[in-house]
Structure formats: C-alpha cells, structure tokens
C-alpha cells in the first residue's frame, strides 16, 4: 500500500458537512462560527431548506449570543427563536429563512 506524501494530506480544517437543516455546533470551535453559519445558511437556502435548527448548547450562553448576532446580520434570515421543550429549549435556535 502506498501512502500519500505529507504535502498531499487533505486540509484538516475542511470538514464535509451534511446540509440537513440541523447544525450541531458542539464539534466546532467558536472562532469557526463567523464563516460556518453564513455558509451553512446559504447552502440551506440554495437547497430550499427554509427551517433550520442550530444546536449550540446551554452552557454559559456565549455560543448562543454569537449565533444570534450572526443571524441578526444575515439577509437570509426571516426570523429566529429559542427552541421549545421538544426542539432543544434554549440550547437550540430555530431559524426561518426568507423565501
């Protein structure tokens, strides 16, 4: 079996992400959100996925605050709100994209 040279290794910062309308942020660094969330919203819009659930966890609220700030700035977002008891409570944000 041949191994690829080190310089040919895939970029570890690029992670294939399924576009399902649910984004779990537990595996991402907070510094990734500024690029991740707008790109994910754009991909959902391109695939006509209008209802999105972003799971940020409850924790200290720092991720939730960052997510909400990014959603407020996005021209793709029609509305967003905290999840309910069935969708993650305040550990998740439900997003509606513009049609």
What does this structure look like?
- α1 (33-46) crosses α2 (62-73).
- β1 (22-24), α1 and β2 form a beta-alpha-beta unit.
- This protein has helices spanning 33-46, 62-73, and strands spanning 22-24, 51-55, 77-82, 92-97.
- It is built from 2 helices and 4 strands; from the N terminus they run βαβαββ.
- It is globular, with a radius of gyration of 16 Å.
- The longest helix has 14 residues, at 33-46.
- A 4-stranded mixed beta sheet has the order 1-2-4-3.
- By secondary structure, the chain is of the alpha+beta class.
Main features:
99 residues, alpha+beta, Ribosomal Protein S8, Chain: A, domain 1, 2 helices, disordered N terminus
Task: Give me a quick take on this structure.
This protein is an alpha+beta fold.
Which helices and strands occur, and which strands form pairs?
Elements: E1 22-24, H1 33-46, E2 51-55, H2 62-73, E3 77-82, E4 92-97
Parallel strand pairs: 1-2
Antiparallel strand pairs: 2-4, 3-4
Helix pairs in contact: 1-2
The number of domains is 1
Low-confidence stretches: 1-9
Q: Which CATH class?
A: Alpha Beta
- The average pLDDT is 87
Count helical runs: 2
Spatial shape: globular
Oligomer: single chain
* Proportion of residues in β-strands: 15-25%
Strand order of the largest sheet: 1-2-4-3
CATH topology: Ribosomal Protein S8, Chain: A, domain 1
